[in-house]
Amino acid sequence: MKAVTKRLIPAIFICPTYYLLKAFNGKSWKGEFAVPQAYHGDDLQYYFPSIKSYSPLFNNTDFIKSFSQSFLDVILSLNPNTQFDPTNPTPAWNHWSSNNTEMRFNKTSANEPDIWAISTDAGLLERCAFWHSMAAFMGQ
């Protein structure tokens, strides 16, 4: 059962994000919350850092600022590069359509923020294309 669940996670949680990126025709950005273990929902505490009932997995001021403010920048200006706070440490963030670029929000083994642009794994996109081709049979 564990192996089946591992194979379905991309189909259920990850692949639909790439379908949405394509639907927005080059006017979208992709971020990846990758702080280990990075389970579904672990990122919620970083979107709303002022809610004190959450205890962040990675309690680092620069990481929290980068993650929460990057998404707030999109809400305020529709662009994560138009930063309302000049101390936001997030590097320049390209549209996803530019070489399948996403911003990975992670930490180093020394518990320092590790935030940088990556290219989406081609194998992942290939697997998502397979799941997309099965959509008519699966309701995705």
UniProtKB/TrEMBL annotation:
This is Carboxylesterase type B domain-containing protein. It comes from Piloderma croceum (strain F 1598).
